């Protein structure tokens, strides 16, 4: 059994554990997205989505088999990394299933979606720590909390802007369907700026200089997202309605890239 992943991680993880842990998590996330594509085919086609299953490029039966094969691979790989990693991976796959599965469909309601995304984000950072066994520093914890909230309060809401028509047709009850784009845009804008400003304040108050640049990236992205969301119009193209979510994703990736460039003390 690889040291550092059966219980609390050691400071120096074997490179093989980091590589396998990365593959395990990639497979569990891929399961979530692929299974979601299978169950979302009606909504995706109604919304004009270009996802492979909705386009017909990947047959539903094949996509379903691949998704479950990925889940099996993820669990088998996680088991070899210890019981804690196995439990974390099982939770991630269970969340992915519950998010999309008919009869449960946590994707249908925004509060449930936020809960799933926040839990998945927290599990992701914890799994990364288990597999990589990096020192648990204050700036890593603060960044993980902030970006988990970014995913839950911003991404989980902004993703629905472009799909309200098809979502409503298929019984979704997310905030964009219930309250309209304008109200939801205000909510997501406030959430985005709050996360960005909160991260910057934490970096300053806790004397964490490693977080100043990442926090600046999040706050800049939050302001850009707010402008895009609040200036959207009902007649906009799907691409334009999708812009806030794209800004969310770009900000998330850019923040992590900047954070990775910071020295770990």
Please, could you describe this protein's structure?
Pfam families: UbiA (PF01040). InterPro entries: Prenyltransferase_related, UbiA_prenyltransferase, UbiA_sf. This is UbiA family prenyltransferase. It is a multi-pass membrane protein. Keywords: Membrane, Transmembrane, Transmembrane helix. With 265 residues, the chain is mainly alpha-helical. It has two domains: 12-134, Tetracycline Repressor, domain 2; 136-265, no CATH class. 75% of the residues lie in helices and 0% in strands. It contains twelve helices and no strands. Helix 1 packs parallel to helix 5 (83-100), helix 9 (175-205) runs antiparallel to helix 10 and helix 10 (212-230) packs antiparallel against helix 12 (243-261). The longest helix has 31 residues, at 175-205. It is flat. The protein starts with 14 loop residues before the first helix and ends with a helix. The model is unreliable at 1-13 (pLDDT under 50).
Summarize the structure in short.
It is a multi-pass membrane protein. This is UbiA family prenyltransferase. The chain has 2 domains: 12-134, Tetracycline Repressor, domain 2, CATH 1.10.357; 136-265, no CATH class.
């Amino acid at each position: 059994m690889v040291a550092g992943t059966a219980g609390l991680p050691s400071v120096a993880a074997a490179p093989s554990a980091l590589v396998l842990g990365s593959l395990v998590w990639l497979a569990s996330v891929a399961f979530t997205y692929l299974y979601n594509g299978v169950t979302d085919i009606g909504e995706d086609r109604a919304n004009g989505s270009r996802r492979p299953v909705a386009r017909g490029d990947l047959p539903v039966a094949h996509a379903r088999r691949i998704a479950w094969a990925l889940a099996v691979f993820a669990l088998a790989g996680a088991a070899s990394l210890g019981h804690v990693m196995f439990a974390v991976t099982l939770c991630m796959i269970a969340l992915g299933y519950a998010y999309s599965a008919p009869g449960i469909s946590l994707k249908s309601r925004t509060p449930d979606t936020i809960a799933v995304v926040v839990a998945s984000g927290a599990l992701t950072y914890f799994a990364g720590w288990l597999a990589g066994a990096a020192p648990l520093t204050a700036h890593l914890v603060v960044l993980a909390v902030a970006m988990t909230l970014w995913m839950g309060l911003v991404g989980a809401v902004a993703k629905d802007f472009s799909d309200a028509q098809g979502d409503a047709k298929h019984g979704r009850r997310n905030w964009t369907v219930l309250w309209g784009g304008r109200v939801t845009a205000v909510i997501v804008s406030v959430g985005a700026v709050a996360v960005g400003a909160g991260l910057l304040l934490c970096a300053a108050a806790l004397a964490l200089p490693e977080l100043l640049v990442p926090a600046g990236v999040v706050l800049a992205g939050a302001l850009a997202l707010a402008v895009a969301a609040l200036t959207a119009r009902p007649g906009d193209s799907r691409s334009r309605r999708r812009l806030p979510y794209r800004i969310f994703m770009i900000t998330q990736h850019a923040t992590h890239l900047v954070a990775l460039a910071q020295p770990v003390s």
